[in-house]
Amino acid sequence: MCFEPDSEPPVENGPQGDVSTTSLTLTAADGARFQAFSARPARPSGAGVVVLPDVRGLYRFYRDLAVRFAEFGHAAVAIDYFGRTAGIGDRDDPDFPFMDHVNKTTREGVQADVDAAVAYLRSPDGGTCRSVFTVGFCFGGRRSLLAPALGGALTGVVGFYGRPVTGPDGPGPADLAGELSTPVLALFGGADPAIPPEDVSALEAALAAAGVDHEVVTYPGAPHSFFDRKYEEHAEASADAWRRVLAFIDRLS
Predict the structure, then answer these.
(1) Contact 200, 230 (CB under 8 A)
(2) What is the rounded distance in angstroms from the CA atom of residue 218 to the CA atom of residue 241?
(3) Phi and psi of 103, rounded to 5°?
């Protein structure tokens, strides 16, 4: 997994302290039900964020991150991927066999869940958001970057350390850049052994060739999953990444 169960988002509380939260069950177009966590701001910006977790699914880190987005005015919903195989539930149990369930996910299933979360944010219950973004991490970062190619009606997509090139699950965002119809913000650690510099360069070149509005940022010396309060030595990279995410949302909303 990307983050340890006791990890925390390296984000200070936002200017809005009054945030309402709720756990809910969403239903995808194929009838699958899955767990989600919603955070609503008192003074909404009109933007919504679908938070796509790492391989572990929906656990505390991502619920906390959804709250931080809401504290900055953006309605947020963090989703779980494993309703089809593990049933409804959060994934806070450190013994949860997440890889067993990751290996059973499909692109179509994950995208159906993303689409259900987007529809929720656009609904009155979710905040009637005018613009909706995905922000994902690792497994979720790859799915976030791929979402426009799979039919997601999104304003923009953000991927933290999502693998850019072809993998066991099929083509990556670098391969499908011509189908990425929305702006992209992609963030990587320069010392991530799973994502070498040439893969990041391939993504940037493909997005440029396809004419996609994009920003690709690499933080020298930062590891995979650097966006974590535990990595005090990479606090500056985390702070810069968070500023870029908020600026990206503000620019496009």
Answers:
(1) no
(2) 10
(3) -70, -10
Owning domain of residue 44: 19-252
Distance of CA 90 to the CA centre of its chain: 17
d(CA 54, CA 162): 9
Domain-embedded: residue 126: yes
For residue 7, being part of any structural domain is answered with: no
* Residue 13 resides in a domain: no
Strand order in the sheet with 214-219: 19-27, 33-41, 75-79, 47-52, 131-137, 156-160, 184-189, 214-219
Helix (H) or strand (E) holding 26: strand 19-27
Rounded CA-CA distance 111/76 in Å is: 17
Would you say residue 130 lies in a domain? yes
Q: How confident is the model at residue 3 (pLDDT cuts 50, 70, 90)?
A: low
Q: How many domains does the chain have?
A: 1
- Residues in contact with 159: Cβ distance below 8 Å, sequence separation at least 6, in sequence order: 136, 141, 142, 144, 145, 173, 184, 185, 186, 187
- What angle is formed at CA 145 by the lines to CA 139 and CA 146, rounded to 5 degrees? 90
Residues 8-31 have pLDDT tens digits of 899 988 998 789 999 999 999 999
**Which pLDDT band, with edges at 50, 70 and 90, does 90 fall under?**
confident
d(CA 230, CA 227): 9
Whether the per-residue pLDDT at 4 is higher than 90: the answer is no
Helices (H) and strands (E) in the chain, counts: 7, 8
pTM listed for this prediction: 0.97
We report the CATH number of the domain holding residue 115 as 3.40.50.1820
